[in-house]
């Protein structure tokens, strides 16, 4: 065992998304990883801590957006991964636009925006796992996504052949 220096939850490289969710009167953004689990229909899973605002808003709306963080958003991903604020969009200067298929906003400057509708969910410990269908998406191929590993953020490196 590598001892206490490394947490097992930090070992696998993870996708870094800025998850957004909005009800009629409230909105939130947080950093969350996600995993692609079905092609037809296109499904993703996210697992969200029960005690946080985003969890309550996903429960209320059954919708969210996964804004796949671009390298330009690494600092924002770090902030949304630990800092709380009454309105993160205003306080962190997050520029948004309306999503075509869900009520959750899309964050400008993201590598991709995946609009998700929850189809089922179940509790696991102090988290809830949501399985969600991608009902819309857009990609900005001029940007690059971020990867998280051993609690650090990386740009994708050289292609291996
Ligand atoms: C790279 C990264 C990935 C994360 N993934 C998740 C996740 O999948 N689910 C989750 O509940 N929290 C995740 N977090 C932690 C939340 O982003 C963090 O608890 C955040 O502060 C929640 O916002 P809030 O405290 O304002 O509600 C992640 C943090 C980082 C840095």
UniProtKB/TrEMBL annotation:
GO MF entries: FMN binding; oxidoreductase activity, acting on the CH-NH group of donors, NAD or NADP as acceptor
Signal peptide: none
Entry-linked Gene3D superfamilies: Electron Transport, Fmn-binding Protein, Chain A (2.30.110.10)
SUPFAM superfamilies: FMN-binding split barrel
Keyword annotations: Flavoprotein
Start and end residues of each Flavin reductase like domain: 12-155
InterPro entries xrefs: Flavin_Rdtase-like_dom, Flavoredoxin, Split_barrel_FMN-bd
Top-level lineage group: Bacteria
Pfam families per the UniProt record, alphabetical: Flavin_Reduct
Cofactor(s) this protein requires: FMN
Family to which this protein belongs: Belongs to the flavoredoxin family.
Protein name: Flavin reductase family protein
């Amino acid at each position: 065992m590598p001892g206490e220096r490394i947490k097992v939850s930090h070992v696998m490289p993870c996708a870094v998304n800025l998850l957004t969710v909005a009800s009629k009167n409230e909105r939130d953004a947080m950093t969350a990883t996600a995993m692609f689990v079905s092609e037809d229909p296109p499904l993703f899973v996210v697992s969200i801590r029960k005690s946080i605002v985003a969890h309550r808003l996903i429960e209320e709306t059954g919708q969210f957006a996964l804004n796949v963080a671009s390298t330009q958003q690494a600092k924002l991903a770090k902030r949304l991964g630990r800092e709380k604020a009454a309105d993160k969009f205003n306080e962190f200067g997050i520029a948004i636009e309306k999503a075509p298929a869900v009520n959750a906003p899309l964050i400008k400057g993201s590598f991709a925006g995946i609009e998700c509708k929850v189809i089922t969910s179940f509790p696991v410990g102090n988290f809830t796992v949501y399985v969600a269908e991608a009902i819309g998406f857009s990609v900005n191929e001029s940007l690059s996504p971020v990867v998280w590993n051993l609690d650090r953020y990386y740009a994708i490196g050289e292609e291996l052949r």
